[in-house]
Structure formats: C-alpha cells, structure tokens
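Annex B. Sample input.
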Amino acid sequence: MTTLIVNGCAEEIAALEGRLREQATSAISASTASEGLSTARQARVADARERDAPVTSLPHAPDPGTPEAKAAERAEEAGGGGDRVMQAKATRNRARTLDQPGNSTGCLEAIGGQASARSVMARSKWIDTPGGAVRRVLSLLICLTIPSLNARADEIRGLVTIGMQRVFEEVRPAFETASGRGLHVQFASSPDIAERVQEGEAADFIIISRTAADGLINRGTVPASNRFVLGGSSITVAVPAWRPKPDVSTPARLRRALLAAQAIAYTDPASGGPSGIQFAKVLEHLGIAEQVRPKTKFPPAGGFVGEILARGEADIGIQQSTELSTFRGVDVVGLLPSEFQIVTDYAAAIPANAVHPEAGKALVEFMRSAEGAAAMKAKGLDPK
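Annex B, continued. Sample output.
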C-alpha cells in the first residue's frame, strides 16, 4: 500500500511573515537614519549661513567613517528596504491566495519562484512504498496536478468577516447548489480583510463592515458601484438555554444582571470586533468595569460567545446578533438597551482585482434575493 503525505505551505508563509517583520524593522531603522542625515545636513547649512560661508561650498559627500557617512549608507538602504517590504507583502498575499488544499506547488511557487512538482515531492513523505511504486505514484501526481489547478482556477474565492461567518454559512450551500460552483472562503476581521485587499490579495468578493468597504472605495481598491449593503446587526444579550433570562431592558437592570453573573462572555475589544469595543464602553458607563474584569471570558480569536454559553462556562454573553442568534443550547434574552445599542452594517463588495467578478456579483445577487434575505434574517441580520 502506498501513502503519500504532502505538507501544506503554512511553514513557508510563517517564515515569510518573519522575514517581512525583519525587513520592516530594517526599513524603519534605515528611514530613521535618513532623517538623521537630513538633520545633519540642515545643521551644516545653518552653520554655513552663520559664518557667511556660501552653502555651495559645503562638501557634497560626508567624510568616510564619520557618523554622517554611516547615516548616508543607512539612508541609501531606506528606499530599497521599503521596496523589499512591499514586495514581501505582495508575495505573502499571493501565497495566502494559493495556500489551498492540494496546491502546495502554487503556494511554493509564489514564495520561491521556482517550485515545481519536484518541490512538492521534496516536501513529501513516502510510507510503505515499494521502489517501483514510487515512480508510478510520482507520474500519477504530476499528471493530476494540471487538471486540479485548472479546477481551482475556476473556484470563486472570497474573504468574509467573522461577524458574518454564520450568516454566510447559512447562505453558502444554497448558492453552491444553484450555481454549481464551489466557494473557497477565508474568515477574518474586517480590518484584516481590508488590509489584505488593499495590499493586493485577490478575491472575487469580500463581505466586511460597511465602514471598511467604504474605506476601500476611498482608496480606489473597490469601485463604488461594486459595493452592496446587505443588512445591519445589533448587539444581543444571551444566556445558556437552561438558565433563567435576566431583565436587561434598561441600563439599571442590565447593570444588576451583570453584577449578579458569575462569568460574563463577550468579544475581546483588542480584536477590533465592534460588539466588544462597544460593550467595554458600556461597562465603563455603568461604572462596573473593574468588577466585571475578573469574571470575563473572551472567546478565542475568531470564536463565538455562543460556544462559551453553550458549554455553561458563562452566565451571560454579549455579541452581535449575527454571531449569537440561533446557537444550539443558547437563548437570546434581547438587545442591549437603546442607550447603548449600535448597529453594524455589513456590505459585500467586488474588488477591482477580482478574477471572477461576474461570479462574485452572482453571489451578491443571490444573497440579496428573497431566498438569501430570508436565510440571512434567520441568522440575525436585518436585511436592507
């Protein structure tokens, strides 16, 4: 029996991230040196003027070995360092795009520039393989590589914010069935998606906060005509299904419920999630931030408060309705009081560099159809 295990591209992407950080640090250092050189030259000019010496008489190049000469050397690195950082970011984004199951060749090619089927073989482990079987399986793998890559090239690629993950997963199967095309989707925060798209990562569609989408329009990454508002999500309060529902209808009643709870779960504000940021402000406004802090439970990055509630690890949870509604083992109590409520609008957009823009628009049209709107509403989004 022959078993072939082909590792993914995660290690190379991680190494590239490390080099990117090093290059960014080096570029910043070089840029600082450049600023120092500029300051030194300005000082020379000022000194020359004080002595009534003509500025043109100043030496064009610093004396070798002087601090100014060393600064000049570092300054020359600044421009090239900045270029290298941008190139590394572009390579990282391309690698992320190609790091799909079975596509080690494409990912390695983006990073190393020379990867081929041999690169994949070099990263593979052969187990219980008779000598003759190696050549046969190798030939088969190479023959299968081209059609599999062509199939992935036809796949619709999207980036979806975590706040809309459960809504999207409700709509996705129906669209794939109706269109007959697969969707390759990655989930991340709206700020992260906006940064990745701005840096050139290809996507046929993105679903992010309306604010983040408008930012991409302002920077020219997304045409204004390619942005479509899907709906709004309010902040919801919920409890484990077997617990009594507290009254949270007013600020005072919400305060009592939070103080009575043994554990409270909500999105870590540091993650950039709008519900977490807003709820931290609510705690400050209610004057109980210090009391709540020791009994706070944050879900992991990209995680859901509903999972914590369903396990009984918190008595009360707060998160956006799109993230917290219709969770098995969780009962929604209601919305935050109107004094504290915010609504996050979400939008779908087709970036200017989309490979399959028509497919992305077809998905958007499906999500905004009566069927799509009903599915989104079922998961807590108020369609618009």
